[in-house]
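Worked Example 4.2. Read the sequence first, then its structure tokens.
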Amino acid sequence: MRKLLIFLCLAFVLFSCKKTGFITTPDAFLRTSTDSLHFDTVFTTTGSITQFIKIFNPNDQKLKLSNVQLMGGATSAFKLNVDGTPGVNFNDIEIQPNDSIYAFVTVSINPTSTTLPFVVQDSIRITYNGNTRFVQLDAFGRNANFYRGRRITSDTTWNNDLPFVILNGLSIDPGRTLTISKGTKIYVHADAPIIVDGTIKAIGEKYDSTRIIFQGDRLDEPYRNYPGSWPGIIFRTTSRDNELQFVIVKNAYQGVISQNPSSTANPKLTLNECIFHNIYDVAVGGINSSISARNCEITQAGYNVFLVGGDYTFNHCTIASYGSYFLQHKNPVLVLSDINGATPLVLNASFKNSIIYGDGGIVDDEILLNRKGTLSFTASFENVLYKMKSADPAILSFSGNKLKNVSPLFDTINTNKPLYNLRLKDNSPAINKAGVIGIPLFDLDGKNRNIGTAPDLGAYERQ
């Protein structure tokens, strides 16, 4: 019995040594979580997020990596950290049986003279047991105009040669105008509200390349689709005569907020052919102010349109939200109120030829009225498709075509991808239901609305 016990102990020791020893044969397995790392647009000098590679040892014995090397060396745009240690060249790295280690990678790109995006590349070489594996690295670099805590103190024009990256906020002084040329792209950091005490004139055109875009500066997955990634644009008391046309505002905490009345006969804020999408809080808001909106798509927001006192007109607008992973649809898409704190206000709001709709959340009535005072409260709707399960409040004024609680049948709504195409299907009930007097000549795509029949409701004309 004693000899048997000694034999079993020796066998156990030999087996344990064999299992925990190093595998040294060339046919040893090694696996990496990916064979390439791709970094989306990285603005020069700002640096990137950190990505990682897992290096797996699926063998029942330890595996020694004789070398892990960043091939571009110390001058590479990429930086490497292996198992918690930064550097460019790592030797004799041990990986336990059926275990793994991490290699972390970042990239920081130096400015160049080019105005176009460019590619920087490198690779990580892994050698073990006479074998060699490579993981490829690449990043799209982009030069930009960097504005850090900048004030616009004189009339200024931004051209579209390079994108603009806004850090620590941007402000426009009273009486000063920022003119933004068609095709300009503005990327805004999470700490950077745009405060307008003067005027913005942002006039784009209908093509994708000529629209003006405001969005967050995180372009990597999954952050590129997160709402609330930058604060938004606020038009304050002294601001006046602001015009946005063919402008896209997306992924902000708030889209545009217009405060207090206009000091001129013009609306304080004119929005023509604009898109507001994926906004965490209020996409288009007014506080005792004046906004004129035409052919606007205002979609996927905490509150799509929130108006508190003031004078507002929305013509041929699509105002819609669907419950999604990023934005629960728990608030009406349109809120009208006459009270700001304890101050009663006059409200005059008009919606013509528009779609006001939501689904996939907990909202039954997509129009909410919050009337607290006794001052004038006018909410008129002419030729609208809207969702309201409750009876229409008596204070609402309807005329023309009234399509209640019917789906607009948008082209594509897929909250998982996410994909939102708010154009109309061929059988949409919104087709040919708009009024023909005073309609705009074209829609949000620049398509002609005057084609011999009544135009369609919403921002898009079905042709």
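Now turn to a second chain, presented in exactly the same format:
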Amino acid sequence: MKVKISNYPNRLICNIHSRHMEKKYGVLSYHNLTHEDHVFEAIDDMVQSVYDVFNWLWFDRRTQKVKVHIDRWDTWSMDHTLASIALPMLVQLKRTKHGAPCTDDEDVPESLRATSASPKENNWDTDNNHFKRWDWILDEMIWAFNQKCRDNWEDDYYEYREMGPEESKDLDSLFVYSLKLVWEDREGQKAHQERMTNGFKLFGKYYENLWD
């Protein structure tokens, strides 16, 4: 597999006025502007008009370039192939994200639900668990894909040892290729698989919310 995706096309944008306002007032305030503020605004407009010519001639005509080449072996275990790509992307998304989407209480532990949060001051406010829920959901996705990248996670729930000469003659012994099963945790393996499946389910449910 070979994937090459270019950066999103940029435009020339003049920030003279916005930088002036932030430096002078600390915020972008458009109330009670002074003569100086209007001068910077006029300069910004003139420079931007020049920029817009270049944007029209070049930048607005550019598109993001995407090239994907799939080899035959990439689909032999497509779930593993995609996991190795999704995992580092999810890790980076959690590290660089600037917000969080609305999530359903049913997808998170009770302690992170909106019903367990402190009362909101206004109906339009987000509760104090809003961002915690998204972090938890992302962590579950990351964990699930990390486990999928492990080819031998099931080994955490089984233990084998080599059979002795006498044991290999015992037809009642449980053996696999001269190995005897001495310990297993089927309930643990089942819970592990169910958590992985839920992580993939969350990935599908919130797929369109995977943005920065």
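Notes for the reader: The beta strands are 2-5, 66-69, 158-162, 175-176, 179-184. The radius of gyration is 28 Å.
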